[in-house]
């Protein structure tokens, strides 16, 4: 039976560390921005010692190394799964039986089959679910959506994107060693390209005639810290093409390594140039240039990764309080992962 949601939602974060990581860098400060909506009441980490260290640092009253113990608590309404992808399956199996709402970082599963299993487990226990495709709540994506949908802009002609995945170059930070093999599920296709694709679908609507080329262009990589050469089998480059319902053409190239993002959107009556420090549309501050009638307007970036995630949590709060469905759930995650797998397979 689904639990009743109080006015202020009590959160337990699985994977909050005192030593950094995405939960510490983004989830904790994003939730702290919304004190009238959320209260962090518990956390888990890989050991009791690290959990205690995190609880002391962040002022969280309950800590454990057991996700099920956190989920069982009456003072926890929403569980945030913010750990590395290979741990998702085990943790969701442990916490779903308690029927709490679950927010899980993207991707849900290592592959579509695993994502589907996790979606079915959560549904069996009537868990309200959310998947971390936060680009959908980025103010930059919302601004681009408004401009593109303005009749004054005219029909979309083309969108060309060149994006980077700094974590997938030939030189590898030790933090990403776990992601070098295809079996990890973490790569250029499933992370930056996946977030960008869902953002583009929200801007342009349904896409058609989609096809992609994917490759591991760096089968040998070098550890940044000690120079050791290691094998890689995962996808580090993605080339994608598609078209919108109205015939606009999309061409997207994501490369492993390097830096930067450049998006050029041509409409009948204006052009947009969007730039950022990397291809991660889901959290990068974006600079948007609008060229119309010989005039150039620049919209400087204001929101950062924490602000974007806070927007997502606002939507999560509204969905939980009012029964709406504005944030993608595990079923959406399964569908998006299947689309990515089909593109990689040439379907």
Give the strand line-up of the largest sheet. 3-2-1-4-5-6
The percent range for helix content is 25-40%
Mean pLDDT over all positions: 96
Total beta strand runs: 16
Order of helices and strands: EHEHEHEHEHEHEEHEEEEEEEEHH
Question: How does the helix and strand content classify structurally?
Answer: alpha/beta
Fraction in beta strands? 25-35%
What Rg, in angstroms, do the CA atoms define? 20 Å
Shape: globular
Cα separation of the termini: 39 Å
Total helical segments: 9
Tell me about the biggest sheet? 6 strands, parallel
Which spans of ≥5 residues are poorly predicted at pLDDT below 50? none
Compact description:
The chain has 347 residues and is an alpha/beta fold.
Describe what this molecule looks like in 3D:
This protein is α/β, with parallel strands linked by helices. Helices cover 31% and strands 29% of the residues. It contains nine helices and 16 strands. The strands form three sheets. A six-stranded parallel sheet has the order 3-2-1-4-5-6, sandwiched between helices. The protein has a six-stranded antiparallel sheet with strand order 9-12-13-14-15-16, covered by helices on one side. Helix 1 crosses helix 8 and helix 6 packs parallel to helix 7. The chain is globular. 44% of the residues are buried.
